[in-house]
Automatic annotation (TrEMBL):
Residues 100-291 form the PBP domain. The keyword DNA-binding applies. Keywords: DNA-binding. NCBIfam families: excise. It comes from Desulfosporosinus meridiei (strain ATCC BAA-275 / DSM 13257 / KCTC 12902 / NCIMB 13706 / S10). GO terms for molecular function: DNA binding. Residues 7-54 form the Helix-turn-helix domain. This is DNA-binding protein, excisionase family. InterPro entries: HTH_17, PBP_domain, SinI_DNA-bd. Transmembrane segments: none annotated.
C-alpha cells in the first residue's frame, strides 16, 4: 500500500474491513489522523499505515512532532473531532429535517446520523460515541417518559432533555381491522400474528411494560420473537399480510393505504444531550432551530406530530 496517496473514509473502511461509521469514530477519538478539504475528509496513506502498526503494537518510523507544533496539532484534532463532527442518534424523519437545517447553518461540520433505538442511543451518549440522541422510553412506575431512563443509563453525567415532538403509538392492523385487535390483551388471541421491534427500542419497551402491567406472558404472543428494526418495516410486514399486528407510530401508518391505525399511547419524543455541551454553538443553534417558525411549520406540515412543546427544556437530569 502506497503511503503517498490519501483515502476517503469509505476506502479506509474497505481496506480495514470495518464500517464507515467506525472509521469516523476512530477519527473522532484521534486514533486515526485525518484532515479536511472543504467538507471532504481524507486520510494520508502514511497515517493509515501508522494506525495499523500502532494497532499491532509496533513502533512506526513517523518522526515525533516538533514541540512547537504540538499545540497546533492538538487544536486541529479538537476542531475535527469536536467542532467539525456531530453524531445524532435516532430514526424519526424529523431528525433528517433537523440535520438538514444544521448542515445549512454549519456547512463545514460533518453531521453523522446513527439509526438506532432509544436505549442504544443513550448508551452511545454515555460512552462518548454520540452527541445528541433521541428517546421515547416509558416508565410504568412513574408514568413518565425518558427522564427515569436517563438517570439510570447516564450515571454521574448531567444531561439536558429537550422535547422534539409528541407522537401517537398504536397498533398497525389490516384495513378494516379484521381480527378486531384493539387492546394489549388481544395480542394473545390464538389466530393473531404479531411482529415485534428490536430490544432497546422505545416501542419494545412500551410493549414489554404493558405486558408486565397486564400480566400477559410474552411467550403467549405468536410472533413475539420476530423483530424488525424500524416502524416502517413493522408496518410493511402487516401491510403485506405477513403479520396481523405490530406496534409503531401513527405517522408511518399514514404512508400505507391498506393499513388502519389503532391509537394506544401518546409518547414524548425527546432529544438528550450532555449538559456541558448545551452552551456550545452547534447545540445552541440546534435549540434555536427547534424554536424557529420555519422548522416548526415544516414538521407540522408533514402531519402526525404534536409540536406544542418542541424546543422546550423538559429536564436537566
Amino acid at each position: 500500500m502506497s503511503t503517498d496517496i490519501s483515502y476517503t473514509p469509505e476506502e479506509i473502511a474497505k481496506i480495514l474491513k470495518i464500517s464507515k461509521f467506525t472509521v469516523y469514530e476512530l477519527i473522532k477519538r484521534g486514533e486515526l489522523t485525518a484532515y479536511r478539504i472543504g467538507r471532504k475528509v481524507r486520510v494520508e496513506g502514511a497515517d493509515l499505515e501508522a494506525y495499523k502498526q500502532k494497532s499491532k503494537g509496533l513502533s512506526t518510523s513517523t518522526p515525533p512532532l516538533d514541540p512547537s507544533a504540538i499545540n497546533e496539532e492538538l487544536v486541529h484534532r479538537h476542531r475535527l473531532t469536536s467542532d467539525e463532527s456531530l453524531v445524532i442518534c435516532g430514526q424519526d424523519i424529523v431528525l433528517d429535517i433537523l440535520t438538514r437545517y444544521l448542515e445549512k447553518q454549519f456547512p463545514q461540520v460533518h453531521f453523522l446520523r446513527r439509526y438506532i433505538g432509544s436505549i442504544d442511543g443513550l448508551m452511545a451518549l454515555y460512552r462518548g460515541l454520540a452527541n445528541v440522541v433521541t428517546a421515547h422510553l416509558w416508565d410504568s412506575d412513574t408514568n413518565e417518559y425518558n427522564t427515569p431512563y436517563v438517570r439510570r443509563l447516564m450515571p454521574g453525567h448531567q444531561t439536558c432533555v429537550i422535547n422534539l415532538v409528541y407522537r401517537m403509538e398504536g397498533f398497525y392492523v389490516a384495513k378494516g381491522n379484521p381480527k378486531n385487535i384493539t387492546t394489549w390483551g388481544d395480542l394473545v388471541k390464538p389466530e393473531v400474528r404479531y411482529v415485534n421491534r428490536e430490544r432497546g427500542s422505545g416501542a419494545r419497551v412500551l410493549l414489554d411494560e404493558q405486558l408486565r402491567i397486564s400480566g400477559i406472558k410474552r411467550q403467549d404472543i405468536l410472533g413475539y420473537g420476530e423483530e424488525e428494526l424500524t416502524h416502517l418495516a413493522v408496518a410493511s410486514k402487516v401491510a403485506r399480510g405477513e403479520a396481523d399486528v405490530g406496534l409503531g407510530i401513527e405517522k408511518v401508518a399514514m404512508q400505507f393505504a391498506n393499513l388502519d391505525f389503532i391509537p394506544l399511547h401518546k409518547e414524548r419524543y425527546d432529544l438528550v444531550m450532555r449538559l456541558e455541551d448545551v452552551e456550545r454553538p452547534h447545540f445552541q443553534a440546534l435549540i434555536s432551530i427547534l424554536r424557529s417558525s420555519a422548522f416548526r411549520n415544516e414538521v407540522q406540515g408533514i402531519g402526525g406530530y404534536d409540536i406544542s412543546q418542541m424546543g422546550e427544556i423538559i429536564a436537566e437530569v
